[in-house]
Specification:
The strands form two sheets. This protein has a seven-stranded antiparallel β-sheet. The protein contains three helices and 13 strands; from the N terminus they run E-E-E-E-E-E-H-E-H-E-E-E-E-E-E-H. It folds into two domains: about 80 residues, Elongation Factor Tu (Ef-tu), domain 3 (Beta Barrel), CATH 2.40.30; about 60 residues, SH3 type barrels. Helix content is about 10%, strand content about 40%. The protein is elongated, with a radius of gyration of 20 Å.
């Protein structure tokens, strides 16, 4: 998840230690994972400043050495901390690009332009990006695939996204034909 306030953008999350000499796994939220080391000092959500001294890529994780973090115990104190960068240090996104932080709080509209909820977060559990949406009038959330087919319009300036989710995703009743297909598949 990438969350931010008006001044900061989450660029990664500290994971588990890597070895015993203070290396740490970082889940990078940057387009090029190793770019997380190019932003200079990062701030943890609890207010500590972290500087990446060295970094390398190992599968989908960045393995990093941090200034002042020299052993496994020091890494444990950072585990699960989100890493932030000041928004003004990031380049402006190109057209049809945006930062996850820009999506948080946008209204969610259906294809009939009716507001049906709010974007709470952008998630990626390994199978692709998902918008976590709180539907209006409900306590729960739904996950909408963040693809052009399911989210055909993203208008950050206008304050909304339009979703066209697959049938059944928002809890609406399936048609009799869809119900019969589901039963036949079982």
């Amino acid at each position: 998840m990438a969350e931010a306030d008006d001044r900061r953008v989450c660029v990664g999350v500290v994971g588990a230690p890597h070895g015993i000499r203070g290396e740490v796994r970082i889940k990078s939220h940057t387009a090029v994972p190793l770019d997380i080391s190019a932003y200079g000092p990062l701030t943890t959500e609890d207010g500590r400043t972290v500087r990446i001294r060295k970094a390398r890529l190992a599968k989908d994780m960045v393995i990093a050495t941090l200034d002042g973090v020299n052993d496994r115990n020091a890494v444990e104190t950072l585990k699960n901390q989100r890493l932030y960068i000041d928004r003004d240090k990031l380049p402006e996104p190109d057209e049809d690009e945006w930062y996850y932080a820009d999506l948080i709080g946008l209204d969610v509209r259906d294809t009939d332009a009716e507001t049906i909820g709010t974007v709470l977060a952008v998630q990626d559990f390994g199978g692709g990006e998902l918008l976590e949406v709180r539907l209006s009038g409900t306590p729960g959330t739904v996950l909408v695939p963040f693809s052009r087919a399911a989210v055909p319009v993203v208008d950050v300036g206008g304050g909304f996204v339009v979703i066209d989710p697959p049938p059944g995703l928002l809890g609406e009743d399936l048609s009799d034909e869809d119900r019969e297909e589901d039963e036949d598949a079982q």
